[in-house]
UniProtKB/TrEMBL annotation:
UniProt similarity note: Belongs to the major facilitator superfamily.
TM ranges: 96-117, 129-153, 229-252, 316-335, 347-364, 370-392, 412-434
InterPro entries linked to this entry: MFS_2 (IPR039672), MFS_trans_sf (IPR036259)
Bilayer disposition of the protein: Multi-pass membrane protein
Localization in the cell: Membrane
Major location category of this protein: membrane
Pfam families for the chain: MFS_2 (PF13347)
Keyword Transmembrane: yes
Protein name: Major facilitator superfamily domain containing 2B
UniProt-listed Gene3D superfamilies: MFS general substrate transporter like domains
Organism (species): Phasianus colchicus (Common pheasant)
One GO MF term attached to the UniProt entry: sphingolipid transporter activity
Presence of keyword Lyase: no
Amino acid sequence: MAGAARDGPERLEEEEEKEQGLSVCSKLCYAIGGAPNQVAGSAASFFLQIYLLDIAHITPFHASLVLFIGKASGAVTDPVAGFFISKSRWTKIGRLMPWMLACTPFTVVSYFFMWYLPPFVSGRVVWYLTFYCIFQALTTLFQVPYSALTMFLSTDQKDRDSATAYRMAMEVLGTLVGAALQGQIVASAHLSHHCTLNPPVNTTSPTLSLNNTSVFPEPSDPLSHQAKVYMMAAGVIGGIYLLGIIILFLGVKEKDDPYALSSDRAIPFCKGLGLTMKHGPYVKLTASFLLISTAVQLEQSNFVLFCTHAADLRYHFQYLVVTILVSAVVSVPFWQKFLQRFGKKCAACGISWMIPFAAMLVTIPNPILAYFVAFVSGLSIAASLLLPWSMLPDVVDNFRLENPHRKGHETIFYSSYVFFTKMSAGIGLGISAACLE
């Protein structure tokens, strides 16, 4: 009787939580919390290379070295982050939230200095390599617990799938905002570049005479107009980071593992990684989406290149990129409804939609067809982003059923998945670039 009396309130609370579900406000706050990473990542993807070459004046070889080592450091940090987070203990604000709160201020600082033009010239490569590696590592320390947080938002699969859909839509929107925002702020830097190509000849100013041999003002001057606008853009995106983490902290409540018992022990990282690699559903999911995500990223990276140099559509490429991103944002709710109605395996067929149209564009390079291919590519990209992150929680649930007396394995799944995705994409893009030689 006493046991039944004790169980009564607990069961009522669980039933009330199931009836209420995850609110739209909580889903939005969760989605907004991860958007700044995409905003900053998009800005860096589009503009960091041109910044290093034209503003920082480092050689193309050193610029490629900075970008490659930075990406590699982010990939290596994934399993390291998973190791430390898996050993974290529960606090008043959760087990994952403290990691996100702690790394955000340092992420903002490293991001700002990544776009800062130091007054010295000889050590600039080391400067940018250091801060880009730190930035990539810190974004990983944020992304791993943020991704794993899906498991602790709700026990209802539909709520988690819905939260994942909100997150994917906001991340694609963040990619679009990052490219557009950075582009608008730093546009004047590259307009000034064209204006200073032919300075007045009858000047005796030593500064202006230097402009005859340099397309920009003196590179060692951190107060030049070009350097200022890039730092201004970094400050704006840093503010977006702070706003995002505040919304995430205030709007999302991390719930403790409802299936874990007080007697359950945290699974050791190495043992957990071994069990993860032997878990059949996880191996199948990872293997399939490693190939799919690599193919999608290859299509993304080569689409603009093809349109610019092979299809003579160079005046359309920026609009084609916007078409892809807008199509991806708009189609996320469609794919969410589709997978709820027809299942996730059927929704995976949508990833292949881009293949016949992309092949058609190769044979018939036409602007109208290019925009249609961009639209369909956006649909496929949205499906490729949504499906793995909505299926991964199901795989984690399956692992939990097979290992009921273990806890702390969620971050191992998420960190290893991100690691393999980054490495496969890096290898694929490297091979693709080498084939273009």
